[in-house]
Amino acid sequence: MRVMCAAIVTLLCFTNSFSTPSDLKAEFRKGKTFITFTEDSGAQSYNIYRSENEIAHVHGLAPLANIPKGSSYDSRYGFYHVVEDLGQPLSANTGLFVYTPKQDNSAYYAITSVTNGSEDTNIISGTNSLVSPEDEEYWQWPCGVLRSKYNSNTYYFYYYWMDYFDWPHAYEYYGDHFVVGEAVILRGKQDVPLELYLHGAGSTLYDTSNPGLKNDRLTMRLQNHCNLPYHLCQSWWYGVSNHYSEHELQHGDTIVGYDEMRIVYYTQSLKNDPRFSIDTNRIYLSGGSMGGFGTYHTSFHNPDIWAAIRPNIAARGFHSWYHSVWYDFYGPESLNLTARNGVNIYNWMDETWIAEQNIGRDFPPIVNSHGSTDGISNMRMHRCLYRKFAGTRHGIWGKWFNLSHDNSILSDTVLSGGYMRFRKNELYPVFSNASQDDDYGQFDPDTSDLVFTGTPALQCDSAGLMNGYIDWTSSLHDMGLSNDDLIDCADSISITMRSSRPNTVVDVTPRRVQDFIIRGGDAYNWRNIDVVSGNNLASGIAIADENGLITVDSLMVSETGNRLIITCNGGCSAVVAGRQSKDMDDALSVSPNPFNPVVKITLSNNKLTVNNGALAVYSVDGKIVHRQIANNEQFLTGIFWNAAGFPSGIYMVCLKIGNKNYNTTVMLLK
C-alpha cells in the first residue's frame, strides 16, 4: 500500500510539474495580430500554434513559433510592451507574440508551455486555445502602436513590430520604437511635410530618440543599433545575411535590408496614420556619416517615397573603401553575394551603379555636403558621385568645406531654398557640367575612384560649390523675377533660372516631368530668353535620348535671369502621339504595389478589348514566371497572381493583344 501511495504521489507531482498557460487572446489591429496570454510560473518558453480550424490538440501541428518566457518585456529600454494605442503596459506574467498576416483570413490560435525541452501538449478550450477565430487582414503597410505622448503632447512615441518570420532574431529583437515630433503650430494642419533623420555610427543609444521640433514639418529620428562589437554594431542602415549567426558568410547567402525595411515601414505607416495629414509629395530623408550613407541607399532603393535627400559627410562606394569592414557584412566580392533582387550586393549598395542602370528613372535629388580633409568620407567618393551623375543626368548639388568629419555642416542649405524646396510631383532642372563649379577634383589627372587608407589626396579646392550657385523658381521657392512661374504643361516647359556667378554655362535636363510628354528620338524646340529684356538669346533643337530625356547643352544662365522654354517640334505632334502612347502604357493597373504575396491585375484602359489576351509575368532576368490567358470580362474584374513561391524583387507584367504589348511593373516585397 505504501509503495502504491508513493507511486501515486510521484505521478501527481510529475503531472503538476506542467502547468497550462491561460487567458489566451488574439486581437487583430491595423495590420498585426497581438497574441497575449498569462504565463505559468514553471515554463521556460511557449509554442504558438495557428490554424484555420479550432485547435483541440496539437498532434500533427508544427508550432508557428517558440517564444521565451517574459516576452512582454523589452530589456533594452526597460519597459513592458503596450499593444493598444495609449493603453496600459502588459503585466510581468503576460506573454506576447505579434503576428503579421499575409492574407485576409480567419485563424485560431493555441499555446503550450515548454520546460527543459519537454512540451506540455495539454489543450483546454477557452484557456490556452481559442474557441472563436480571429478575423485577420493583410495590410501592405501595418501601423505601429502609439505607446505614449509627452513633452506637452508634441512627441509621439510609437513601437513597431516587423514581420517575425522575416527578421534575424540573433541580430536584434523584431520590434523597436520611433518618435515623431509635431510642433503645436502644426496641429490640425493639412498636407504637412515629414523629415526623417538617420543617426550616424557610434553609441547604440538604447534610449528615446527625440527628433526635435520644427514649425514647418513633422520630424522623425531613427537609431541603428544592436548588441554587437562596435565595428559590427550598426549595419550602415542596410542589413545582414539571411543566415546571420548560423554560419560564416558563404556562397548562396542573401544580404537582406532588414534595417532599411524599418525605415520604409515606419515611414509608410505614418502616411496612413489618421493622427497626421502628411503631404506624400514632401517626405524628406537626411543623415550624417553612417546615416548619410543610409540616406543614399535607402532613397535609391525606394525612390518613389522621397521628395529629396540630404546626406552629410557620407561615406559611399563599398567596392573600394575599407574592404575589411564591408567583408564582415557582405563577404569578399569574390563570393558574389546578392540582395534579394538578385543584384550583387556591392552594386546594390552603390547609388551611382543604380543610376547608371536606370538612367531614365527619376531618383530623389541629392543635396550633398562634406569636408575636403575628411579621412572617412574622402573627396574621391564625392568626385565619383558628381562625375557619374553628370553622365546620367540625375540631380545633385554639392558643397564642401575645409573641414574633416564634421556633422555640423548639415545645417548648411547648400542651394537656395535647401532640399525641402523639392516636391516629388514637380519638375526640376538637373544641372551638369556647369562652367563655374569649383574644383572638386574634376581636373586632377589622377582619375581613379578607388579609395583606400593612404590613397593620395585629390588636387581640389579646399572649399567650394557644385551647382549650388544656380537658382530657379518653383512652387515652394520664388526668386521674385517677372513672369517666372515654373511651367510643365502639355505643350511646353518653362524654367526661369539665374546664377550668382557670372558667365555660367551649364547643361540643363528637366527631371520629374509631369505633363509634358517626351518620347525618345523626337525633336523639341528650345529658346533661352533674357528675363530683363525679353530678348531671345539663343535657340535650337534638342533630340530626346533613348531614355526619354531632353538635355539643352551649354545654356547660358546670367546673374539677372534666363528663361528656358521647351516646346515640341512641328505643331506638337509629339505630344499627341505621346498622349496616345501614354494611354496605352496605362492599360494595366496593379494593386497593391508593392505586394506580398498576391497582386490584382486589372485592365484599366476601356479603349482596349481583350478577347483572348496573353498575360505573362517576367522576372528581372527575363524569365517567364507566370502565364495566363483571359478574356475581357476577367481582365476588367481583375485576375490575381500569387507570388508566394517567388523571391522579392521587380517583376514585369506584360499583356499581349494581337501584335501589341502593354507593360507595367510590380514589386514583390516580402
UniProtKB/TrEMBL annotation:
Gene3D superfamilies per the UniProt record, alphabetical: alpha/beta hydrolase
Answer whether the UniProt record assigns the keyword Oxidoreductase to this protein.
Answer: no
**Claim: DNA repair is one of the keywords in the record:** no
> Matching Pfam families, A to Z?
Por_Secre_tail
Keywords from the named record: Signal
Where in the sequence is the signal peptide annotated?
A: 1-19
Occurrences of domain Secretion system C-terminal sorting (ranges): 591-663
Cross-referenced InterPro entries: AB_hydrolase_fold, Secre_tail
Cite the NCBIfam families for this sequence. Por_Secre_tail
**Name the record gives this protein:** Secretion system C-terminal sorting domain-containing protein
Q: What is the organism lineage in this UniProt record?
A: Bacteria, Raymondiibacteriota
